[in-house]
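Message: A physicist's question: would you kindly supply an amino acid chain plus fold tokens?
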Amino acid sequence: MADMSQMPRNVRRLLERGVVLPNPASVEVADSVVPERIAPGVVIRSGCRIAGAETSIGPGSEVGGEAPATVEGCQLGHGVELKGGFFSGATFLDKAAMGGGAQVRPGTLVEEEAGGAHTVAFKQTILLSFVTAGSLINFCDALMAGGTSRKDHSEIGSSYIHFNFTPHQDKATASLVGDVPRGVFLDQKPIFLGGQGGLVGPARIAYGAVLPAGVVCRLDALEEDTLHVPRALAGGKSAFVAGSYRNIRRILRNNLLYIGNLWALREWYRRVRVRSMAGDPFREACREGALGRIEGGIAERVKRLRELAGKMPRSLECARGGEVAPLSPGDAAAQQALADRWQGMEERLRKGPDDSVGVRARDEFLGAWEKTPAGVTHIDAVRALPPEAREAGRRWLQEVVDDVAGQDGASAR
């Protein structure tokens, strides 16, 4: 064994703590890393780099199992596998896994037993428990739920893309695949996004929906338990003017619903997971990290919506000046309303719902939640909930969503 006295101090401190470094001379540990936040028995393979005071790695986890990995400012729960790639500003709950070649950037939250295979890109991505991504995927700016177990999970097929940047150069495009009020209870039908396909954001996809392989979905798919085959695009060509928007009401509605779902998820982590993730420093670090990801996601989505609102005067000018076909009265009114009302909308979206929203259903649910078995995993605790408690929880979280998404008045309808 190599002489520990000759090793860098930060590497030596991990070894002394019981972290397993099969080739310690090849591992880089930044000065910012707090050794106590990495559990004894964690395995860090050759060529890995660990950085960030916020980094926390729980028992049974392994970094770099397939290829070198960089982990900076991330939280890993128990039994997490990050097999290779770049991971920054992300949170991975118990038994989450990512294959080699991953690029996981800030704002990403991967819940229990969710994850991806090789060469997957996430940013501002939230996967609720069990959601599984195949290989060669770019799925940024989206939240996905659905499924009841690892054998009954929502799937993102290999070579799938979430298209999150428009020719108008905006990113008000986050897509909601499933939802939070039902998804957190782990009892919904899985959603299937077929391989070599794509989803053009901002879109909403219902539970039980199947988008076939090779299909690019450009619309919402809101009918549950349905195979959705989008109609073919019209042939020919038409004029395109950058900055000229149509159907802004759908774009705004989907953005507001997405932000509402993030606020509902924040409530879930604040009031529900505080019990099921307590008592273990690594799970508590993950809960704190998850709250940071969610709050950062809210800020990101409000920022992108602000940028969209700022483009409305130009869009209206294009229509009035004859650069494009005239807008319908409804579209013109919606664009003007977004421009005029944005400042007040932004303040309310950043503030979120009052504590009084959904309080009756919330208290009913939390009373039942306190009676679930102690000392079990979060998944087992959720599964132990009786039907009436689940229904109360859904009502509470849906009221949170509705309160946030309804703040725009008529402009989103």
Q: What stands out?
A: Residues 244 and 345 are 22 Å apart (CA to CA).
